Each structure stands twice: as structure tokens, then as C-alpha cells.
Amino acid sequence: MKKIDVMVTVFRDGFQSVYGARVLSADFLPAVEAASRAGIRHFEAGGGAMFQSLYFYCNEDAFAMMDAFRAAAGPDADLQTLARGVNVVGLDSQPADIIKLHAELFKKHGITTIRNFDALNDVNNLVYSGRCIKEAGLRHEAVVSMMSLPPGVPGGEKVHTPEFYAGVLRRIMDAGIEFDSVCFKDASGTATPAAVRETLRAARALLGEGRPLRFHTHDTAGTGVACCLAALDGGADALDLSMAPVSGGTAQPDILSMWHALRGTQYDLGFDIEKVVEAEEVLKDCMKDYFVPPEAKAVEPLIPFSPMPGGALTANTQMMRDNKIMDKYPAVVKEMGEVVRLGGFGTSVTPVSQFYFQQAFNNVMFGRWKKIADGYGRMVLGYFGRTPVPADPEVVAAAAAQLGLQPTTRTPLELDGENPAKGAAAARKKLAAAGLPDTPENVFIAATCLDKGIAFLQGKGRVQVRKNKPAAQAQDRFTVTIDGERFKVELKDGAAVVNGTHYSAAVNPGFADAPAVTAAPPAGGGAQVRAPLSGLVFKLLKKAGDTVAADEAFIVLEAMKMEVPVKAVSAGVITLLPFKPGDQVQTEDVLAEIKGA
Questions:
Q1: Is the same domain home to 496 and 533?
Q2: Same-domain pairing of 284 and 200
Q3: 14: how many CB neighbours lie within 10 A of its CB?
Q4: Are residue 591 and residue 502 in the same domain, yes or no?
Q5: What CATH number corresponds to the domain at position 569?
Q6: DSSP for 467-493?
Q7: Is residue 436 part of a domain?
Q8: Do 120 and 352 touch, CB atoms closer than 8 A?
């Protein structure tokens, strides 16, 4: 029998794929202990979206989580994290000092292996980051990113083929990048079993025997187990698998599903399967209160036509739910294929998958190419490295005009090294301005998590974890805030209880019998500026009483991981600015009133 190494992905990629990475460590650590008792010794234990998410949504420190994970998994477990080449664990690229600090800090906090990938498969982005990983005393797993494109996509025959992927691995080897293992990572779950088999066969021929070769996929399209079997036939000796209830659908195939598929074959996962069943029961109990989006557990047959990674799909649908625009989701997904093609065919994996989604979202909300998303625009202009094929010239021109940037062929490492707003020195200035200690961890948090990282360190973080509510609370209890005054409202037995006082009430769905309400005219006859989309107020650039120029940004909204500046419709004095940072606004809410000078 051939023993297959398994890395359990529940606690990083699984959580990202099912819960948008919004999981509290105190809730899941008992499941880590149970998995360790079941004989699981290889865990994905952080990095990727699980780093920023802890600061953004869980009000937790990712380094403290890694320390606790090491204690729960035991001293001999292989704890692996995910890094995005020169981006490390940020959505933007980082200069050399932060890339080096990333490897050193993750080593310090109990990590043994870092998986290192570049969404564009630009090998230049793996050279320095890989060197830092090895110099820190960590194992380096080099990655080739995969996906498949719909048939007939113009230009698609040149990329995302077994020959293309084998060529990426050859370039990694020719670049002299030191690595301990290789992973072929299909974040969207769209690669076909035949392409996986031929790709892994070519990779095994390049690597020879004895070098660990791993395959990673998601079951979003329902082909996860078939692709894993094809990878083993092609020469893989390691797989990424997950555990129920964080398995299947947008996550990885389940250990039990793969065990069953391998029965009667030459392959063995090496587990006492009854103990794995027990560990899954513990995990189910740990996660029983968490809201599971229905799309997270479903097979989506249309995913191969619009490649959306499992880890991005649920994160984006959750944000669309939060912003009350979930009805736009089908149109956004349909637009994905076009932005992939015109953007240069980078692999749909973080951060490029988010760039694709943001641009598809903008195309739907504002009109095609009327608003270039910052990340997508900088990608097609070359600021994240070289795309597999050149981006569409018209899209490049639109990005240059809207972002005020020129195309570049310089590497991100070169550009970031000259950027005074990036790096350890810039992070230290932010810490000093906020009165925060200058520690290596704080420097890294400030550099990669920016303003939200600083807010966490100041004790201003917020918990935004989605858990199921008791039925009565979900349906009949509300907190209503009107003009800053908060009311607790409970609908019960034909009565409305408002701050403890009972009123008789009849509640009917909809507004059919309600009188029409006419909006009041602007105070003082000023011009109104309305929210172009739903989102959170991220930053106020002006305050009531300030003067503003026409087309000058006065407020920044945050929606779909994008900062959206909202500009004044005319020059004058801001007479009304009713929102503050952290407030949720809906499309067409009045953000400001401006009275002409």
C-alpha cells in the first residue's frame, strides 16, 4: 500500500471557504485537540485570509491564535500556513523587510511549513519570498496555481493547460528557488480530472521520485474527489482534505469521502477511520452555532464557466448579504469570465480572485469598465507582476486613465522598496502616531492590516462573526436606533414591547397598506449626495461645516473589500453629514447635504 500524506485544511482554508474566515479560535481549538488525538499530524493552521480576518472580524490576534494552535496540536505536528508570494498575508504586495519579517515571525509563533504561491504564476514573485522562508528555518512548499477556463474562450488555449503548468514548475526550478515540496493548487475547483492527471504526471517527471508532490482542490463543482484520484494516478503522494461539517461544497473533499473512494486501491490515508469519525463529531459540536451560507455546502455546476474560488465565493456572498445586494450575485458571477479573459488570465485565487470579483461587481453596479477596481487596475498595469498573457489594451488604457498610473514592467519588490508608504519604517510611524508599542508583531500587523490593524491594536476592533440566533430572537426581537436613540422592540402575542412598555400592535408583512411617504426637501435647499451602494462608512474626510469642492471626496465607504470614495456633486459648505465611521449605509441613503457658497 502507498501511504498518502494528508494535510487537514479545516482550520484555515475550510473556515475561509465556509464561514468567510470568521471563526473564533476559542470555539475551534477543542476540535484541533480532537483531530490530534485521532492521529492527524499535518494541519493548515493560519495564514492566507485567516490572518487578516482575525483582526478585521474576530477582534483576535493571529499570532496568539498560532501559539494556541501549537499548544492544541502538540509539539510534533507539522503546522502549515499559506503565503501569497510578495503579498505574504496581505492583499497588497509588500517590500523586502516585511516579507522577511513574515517568515521570521511565523517561525517564532510555531509554524513549520509555509506554502508559497503567486496568483499570476509569476516566478519572480516567489524567488525572494521563498528564500526568506528557508532562511528562517521553515519548510518551503512551492506552488503552481491552477484552474480551467470555459471552452472556446479566446486565448484560453494558451494558458491553464498541463503544458503551461509544467512550464511554471520548470521556471521555479530553473530560478534556483529552494523548496521542500510542490503543491498544485486549484482554488476554484474548476480543473478537469484529465488535466490534473496530465499536469501531475508532467510534474512528477520533472521532480523525480522522492520529492513530495501535493494536490489541492475544492469541491465547488462536484469534481473534487475525482480530481484527487486523478492526481494520485498522475504521481501525487499528498492531498489536502477537510472534515465535516467544514468539507465538500466550497471547501475540500472530506477525509471520509476520500477514504471511501480509495477502498480497494493501492492507496491508504493511514488513519484509524473510527477516530476520524469521532473527531468530526467534536468539530460538528464546535461549529453548531455558526451560520453556514447555503451556497457553501452546495455543488455549483456553473462554477467552471465563471471560476470563483471556494474561499472567495462565501466571503463575497456574505458581504453582499451584509450590504443587501445579494440579488446582484448572479450577474456578478456571469461577468467573472469576461474580467478573467480581458485581465490577462491570472489564476482565480487570492488576491487576484478578489480583483476579478471586485471588477465584475463594478461592471454590474456602475456599467462595464466605468469604474476600474484599484486592485484589478493595478494588476493589468503590471504592479503585481506579469500576467500569463497581456491584458486587453482597452482595459489597460481605462485603468491607466482612471487610476492615474502608467503600465510598468518593474517587479513589485522593486516598486515597493521605493514606496515610503510601505515597509517597517512606515508601519513604525503609524504605531508611534497611535501611541502603540514598537514590537515586531505590531510592525507586521500595521504593515499588512493597515488602518484596521491599528484599530485592533488600539482596542477598537469589532467582532463580526455570524452565528445562528434563537428563532424568537431572529424573528421577533429587534434593536431600532432612531436619531441616535436606541429602542428594544419585541413583537409578542399581538403586542409590541418597546423598552419594556407594552403596546397593542398588528404586524403585517410588506407596506401595501402604509401611506406613501414623501422625502423632506434638503435642509436649506442644499444639494444631496446619496450613497452609490450599500456599505460601511470607513472614513470621514470632511465634517459638517467644512467647505468642499465639486468632485472632491468627502467620505469613504467600504464595500466588498473595496474603499469607495464618494465625491461632492457641487462646491459649497457641508450642512449635513449624518453618518460616522462604522455606520452601515444603504444605497440611496443621503450621505451629505451641500449648500452652495
A1: no
A2: yes
A3: 31
A4: no
A5: 2.40.50.100
A6: BPPPHHHHHHEEEEEETTEEEEEEEET
A7: no
A8: yes
476 close to 490: Cβ distance less than 8 angstroms:
yes
CA-CA distance, 269 to 231, in Å (whole number)? 14
Q: Say if strands 584-585 and 535-540 run parallel, antiparallel, or are unpaired.
A: antiparallel
List, run by run, the mean pLDDT of 10-residue segments along the chain (597 residues).
96 93 96 97 95 95 98 98 95 94 98 97 96 98 91 75 96 97 94 96 96 95 96 97 96 97 96 97 97 84 72 68 78 86 89 88 92 94 94 97 96 95 97 98 97 94 86 59 64 58 50 39 66 78 88 79 78 88 79 83
Report yes or no on 239 lying in a domain. Answer: yes
Per-residue DSSP letters for 136-193? TT-EEEEEEE-----TT-TTGGGSSSHHHHHHHHHHHHHTT---SEEEEE-TTS---H
Q: Determine the pLDDT at residue 13.
A: 95
For residue 291, count other CB atoms closer than 10 A to its CB: 16
What is the pLDDT at residue 483? 57
Q: Cβ(20)–Cβ(314) under 8 Å?
A: yes
Using alpha carbons, select from 282, 275, 276, 279 the residue that is nearest to residue 258.
276
Distance in angstroms (rounded) separating the CA atoms of residues 313 and 21 = 12
Phi, psi of 106 (to 5 degrees): -70, -35
Please say which residue of 303, 329, 364 terminates a domain.
303
User: How far, in Å, CA of 343 to CA of 438, rounded?
Assistant: 40
- Asked if residue 538 and residue 497 are part of one domain, the reply reads no
Asked whether residue 547 is assigned to any structural domain, the reply reads yes
Q: Which of 169, 101, 163 lies closest to 141 in space, CA to CA?
A: 169
What pLDDT shows up at residue 330?
A: 83
Query: For 239, which DSSP code?
Result: E
pLDDT of residue 488: 66
Position 394 scores a pLDDT of 97
| Residue 569 structural domain | 524-595
Is 156 in the same domain as 208?
A: yes
pLDDT for the residue numbered 288: 96
Query: 496 with 565, same domain?
Result: no
Say which CATH number the domain at 32 has: 3.20.20.70
